[in-house]
Write a structure and sequence with these properties.
Elements (H helix, E strand, L loop, with lengths): L17 H34 L7 H17 L4 H26 L4 H26 L7 H20 L3 H27 L6 H26 L4
């Protein structure tokens, strides 16, 4: 991907042959390049948000901003506007992460909790991605289960927030760790086998998986340390 021409193209993948391999490799390369840039950008925004002690926008604004920007990503996925929408979405998510990190850093062992969550997230992502890339197994069969599971977990998470049920919130976090791990495996396999040919959409899926994996691990580690 040439950064001076940020145009996301849907790349057709014929079944078999060198052309298919080259096209798949291009999607993988572009996806991981854009993912790296968006992770760095979101981390920077989160750092600024935490340093300035900016307030969390709240659940309603967070959901509205997330789904609104996600719609923009899908709307402009085949144009340069899709790249801008991806950075807007990931930057917004980084902003919402700042206050969450501050909450844990304020705990006696908060720094350790944050670092453990970051390390575990990185290890899970790298491990699952490497497994999917090296084995080249097709995990498309997981799609329906993941979609249903994420929907149920999302609704349960909203219920835990609005009805203030800590036990349910922890259960949802544990479920999201498993679901996001499965989504990383599924999406990587999807790229390899030509199910996803748009690196903008692939990047967003992997970024959201990493984000939710990290925040879920934060809550679980905070609970296990006795500080959450």
């Amino acid at each position: 991907m040439k950064l001076n021409q940020p145009r996301a193209q849907a790349i057709p993948l014929p079944h078999g042959g060198g052309e298919s391999i080259l096209a798949t490799n291009k999607v993988i390369r572009n996806t991981y390049l854009l993912l790296s840039l968006t992770l760095a950008f979101a981390a920077g925004v989160a750092g600024v948000s935490a340093a300035l002690k900016l307030p969390h926008p709240g659940i309603l604004l967070t959901l509205g901003g997330f789904f609104g920007l996600l719609f923009a990503v899908h709307r402009f996925k085949n144009s340069g506007g899709g790249i801008l929408a991806v950075f807007a979405l990931t930057g917004f998510m980084g902003y919402t992460l700042g206050p969450i990190i501050n909450r844990y850093l304020g705990l006696p062992n908060g720094g350790e909790i944050v670092m453990q969550a970051m390390g575990a997230t990185a290890a899970i992502f790298v491990g699952l991605s490497a497994y999917a890339l090296t084995t080249k197994k097709d995990f498309s069969f997981m799609g329906g289960f993941l979609m249903a599971g994420i929907l149920v977990a999302f609704l349960a998470g909203l219920a835990a927030i609005f009805f203030e049920i800590p036990t349910l919130s922890l259960t949802v976090s544990a479920a999201f760790v498993l679901l996001m791990s499965g989504l990383i495996l599924y999406e990587t396999s999807n790229i390899i086998h030509g199910g996803e040919t748009n690196y903008v959409l692939a990047t967003v899926t992997l970024f959201v998986s990493i984000f939710n994996l990290f925040t879920s691990l934060l809550q679980l580690l905070g609970f296990m340390s006795g500080d959450d």
